[in-house]
């Protein structure tokens, strides 16, 4: 089980706000900490995947259940 350091509820925010809020949270975090993001924006699925690849942060989990998306990002 992964320890969550910061939790971000981005539900009901439209693109690009879930990713923008996640980036802001990551900027305040220390290396190795884990951010959990909940979102309802369907476009966030691709956004978080691409962001993790480009930023060097690790996408530990991306899952969808009942039109809600959950992401775990580990800060590099």
Sheet-strand content, in percent, reads 25-35%
H/E element sequence? EHEHEE
Largest sheet, strands/sense/barrel: 4 strands, mixed
> How confident is the prediction overall: mean pLDDT?
96
Structural class: alpha+beta
What's the gyration radius in Å? 11 Å
- Give the helix proportion (percent range): 25-40%
Shape: globular
What is the count of helical runs? 2
Concise account of the structure shown:
The protein is built from two helices and four strands. It is α+β, with helices and mostly antiparallel strands and 76 residues long. The longest helix has 12 residues, at 44-55.
Produce the secondary structure layout.
Blueprint: E1 6-10, H1 17-27, E2 34-39, H2 44-55, E3 58-65, E4 68-74
Parallel strand pairs: 1-2
Antiparallel strand pairs: 2-4, 3-4
Describe this structure in words.
The protein is of the alpha+beta class and 76 residues long. The chain contains two helices and four strands. The protein is globular. It starts with 5 loop residues before the first strand and ends with a strand.
